Predict the 3D structure of the following.
Amino acid sequence: MAPWVDAIAPFLIAVSVVIGPGLLVVSAAGARGWIRWSLSAPVTFSIAGLGAVLLGLLRLPFDPISFAAGLVALAGMVWFVRRLITRRFASGAPTGEHARIRREHDLAPWAVPAAVVVGLSLAAALISSRLMRGIGSPTAIAQLFDNVFHLNAIGLIHTTGNGSSLSLGNLTEASRGFYPAAFHDVVALVMGLGVSDVSIALNAVSVVMAAVVWPVSLSFLATRIFGNRADIIVLSGICASLFAAFPYRLFSFGVLYPFMSGLTMLPVLVALVMEFFRAGRSSFRRQVPVTVAVGAAAPGIALTHPSVVVAALLLALVFAVPPLLRLLRERSSVLARSQAAIALAYIVGTVAVFLIVRPPLSTAPWDPIQDPRAAVGSIALMSPGTGLIGWVLIPLAASGLIRAIRHARRYAAVLAMTTTGSILYFASAAMWHPFLRDLLAGVWYRDTERVSALFAVACLPLVILGAATITRAMAAGLRRVIPSSSAWLRTIIAVVLVGGLIVVVGQRGALTQAESWLGQSFGQAGVEPLLSEDERALLEELPDIVPANEVVLGDASTGASLTPAFSGREALTPHIFGERSKDEKMLLSRWDRVGVDPSVCEVVRELDAYWALDFGTEGVLGQDRPEIYGLDSLADAPGVEEVARVGDAALYEAVACR
């Protein structure tokens, strides 16, 4: 296993790919401050996801060269359009926001920039260190069902140059169709920039999303709700690491890389909806740049995981209520009537999207995991799922809840988001009524693990509010202890004391369990149902044995079909599920008869499927191996010859068909 220090260069490449393209475009558009940095990752995903679709339609390869060319052209066009607009119209953007907030809170001029560095650095260190310990090595892979698809999808995009979400499907020609591919496109770009090992590229991008993009997004939402205050920024960074359900659990369940990455950007979309309706209080003109920002960010998030956009729309519903209430007070105002119409359209549209945009529940086998009382307890204890209790979250959430209720009008959004997350969690975890459960949790496959992560994201503003409330109380107490000190010094001391206590207490219990689950899922416990070291070693030998234009058969559930990811060779069944053609089904059931059945050789020659990997019968599905009958007894099959072996893993060739 390689040490993490060997992956410094891949991590720097991953940060550059995830942040850099979006940062260039939003900077060309004139964005500044928090919104520039928070939009960078979503816009990058929009450029990658939409760019791959466009290049696919034009039959051009999606690779770093075509991506860079399109990026430069897009940034130049955005800059040119911005120049035209600013010459014709005076800027309506607010100025002096940071200075105004500093005066209000008696902060030193350097407080907010310093808070950004401290808060985001703390978050990155806490989250990345736990993920790295759990993963174990930059070359480790999650030994889980969904990783067959993710690894091969990235490998195929890298080798074929086709990253279009319109055709990725289940990775075979017979199952071509829509699958949101933006996450896989981004990882493929990292591979194209010199990170040749798919596992290193995948780990680098996913850790960057969890440890860098997520804290930036959460801090952006927190500053929109609570103000651009130094204590809020630091506490947001610390609180981003506190829930076991997100981001850690999504690395050890599934594994759900696209959903996890989409959730890291969800706060940005919620914050933009908030800004849109807030800007509408004064004029339509101030809503235009926010609308553009939403249009730039939403496609990338949708092409990472569409259900995240649905979740963002739901969590932001509360921001559409004030325009409707304002209409009651200002019925004669044209602006009030127009904004109320927009708000009503938003509410109706959100309900329609929530009801329509959902996966087929035939692929959602998850049942409730708790009784109603236990689910309510999990919500109250801020411990969704079946994990241990995160004790530090209880006083933080309680303090936030008390303050939010006492100032309900000011913190209505915090209460509404927490309530929405709680309802969704209860529906997935404990609701047995099939219609209601499908209605409320069907968008997320009725899966409690997915909804637990969404619950964590929805409740974090309440947790941050609680941390800020305790910090403010601590600062007030310090005023009596050191009355001669300035307000900003007392705030710094309070943040250090409260933040330090949260870090020390919060990194135990549930998070320790989450790290243990990570270690098990990434094979640190010695269980490797998907891919053992011997099997991986054999896959890495394949490029020297198997010609580039020939196809390899293998049982996908044992990892024997991971040739696109680790060998650069086509697999007959690159995913465990998916439509198979008639010829593919025939080979899977009869490939071992090449020496006795001429019709099998005819199909082998037609598909160039001269090779087969035997990785045993134990895989991520146990010994449930549907339709894989022709690969059971290759060692004794006539016309089949063993070509290479590493341990129990073997490669065979259909020599009878040559």
